[in-house]
Task: structure prediction
Amino acid sequence: MAEIDTKSPSPPLPDGIIPEEAITRAENRWLAIMLGMLGVMIAVIVVTGVSNSLHPPSNVETIDPVTLHLGGEFAENNLGTAVDPDASVTVRLIAEQYAFVPDCTRIPVGAPVKFRLTSTDVIHGFLLPATNVNTMVVPGFIAEVRTTFSRPGVYNMPCNEFCGYGHHGMSARVEVVPSEQFPPQDAAERTSCAKQ
Ligand code: CUA
Result:
């Protein structure tokens, strides 16, 4: 199809007109390059998804942002770190203009951690650099992310979704501590390192 018929030369084209065969060749070349790039991008997504547990968050749970502070899961006394009976950890946080509540979370190293967040106002971002944690926090929905911290340290937790005038100052932190430093485990107790 893209072969040039050399036996019966076509009449000369006017100046500046490119032969159709040359255009077809160029189009096919670019199509092959695009398909190659697409293949590379899909491979990157699959490899990082499998090896680093980088998955698009897909939790769909709704909550009323107007009343969430009045009771239930996101009432003030239920925020922070809770140790579940199986020694895994659930951290509940609220994102609001322009802070996370609580603004410091303490987590034992090595424990499976489930973060549950929601917003009272606009869309915020929840990111822990150098981990698989990165999601949007959308009012009306509960964002849930699971991870495990393999080494102790302090992780900065910037809001990474533009949320208004004070966005640049909106950040919190996560302190990952050796599990023996973790306070005695009372299922009903919530802990944080936020300054009161
Ligand atoms: Cu909250 Cu940006």
Observations:
- The chain has one helix and ten strands.
- Residues 98, 124, 159, 161-163, 167, 170 surround dinuclear copper ion (CB under 6 Å).
- Residues 18-57 form one domain.
- Helices lie at 20-52.
